[in-house]
Specification:
Elements (H helix, E strand, L loop, with lengths): L7 E6 L1 H5 L8 H16 L3 E6 L7 H6 L4 H25 L4 E5 L8 E2 L2 H9 L3 E5 L9 H11 L4 E6 L5 E2 L11 E2 L1 E3 H6 L7 H10 L3 E5 L5 H7 L5 E4 L2
Parallel strand pairs: 1-2, 1-6, 2-5, 3-4, 3-5, 6-10, 9-11
Antiparallel strand pairs: 7-8, 10-11
Helix pairs in contact: 2-4, 2-9, 6-8
Amino acid sequence: MVETKYRRVLLKLSGEAFAGDKEVGIDIATLTRVAKQIKSVMEMGVAVAIVVGGGNIWRGEEAEANGIDRVTADYAGMLATVINALALQDILEREGVQTRTQTAIGINQVAEPYIRRRAVRHLEKGRVVIFAGGTGNPYMTTDTAAALRAIEINAEVLLMTKNKVDGIYSSDPIKNRDAKKFKHLTHLEALNLRLEVMDATALSLCLENKVPIIVFDLKAPHSIEKVVKGESIGTLVSSE
């Protein structure tokens, strides 16, 4: 078994990750590459839980800006995450990885309800657990769901994947070539600098519970495996 730094991780996959190089929809080739990495990490003896976003299908902020009620928009976004979760579950199972999807909103025909003890038991049995539906509450992002689930399942680290960005920068590196990349930040520094790591609620949860966050480029070759092994890629946000 390969030596790893972490034994249980929470991986946050944004809707952008599901879309791949497209702006919307689900790119099967991208998900297959991600699934193969997750399988490799599982074979290293690492327990993997995943929180999925839904921005590739539905963006609540845009819907609200166009006149849709915020609560309605947020619930629609939760349903979008369920679609992504089911797609990822199917592809993982094609790769031979036992997978369970749990949702924070009731949709029992296609997924289990979120029950913390059951989720932990699945992880102990060597299954990947996908958490969909956010926290089940409007006004809460899937970043907050990722932080919350990481704490609840006692994950050692929260892995935040990004597309086209290999860490946290002082400003958008795509728009500003002079943007400075941070190798390491404390949670408090990330909050005070108002960097777009994740929303403030999620970051505060990680600060209070001392959950380290690693932000890295999902598209980089073998990026998930490298992070789990403890290789220095991306940006580390920790309490130290």
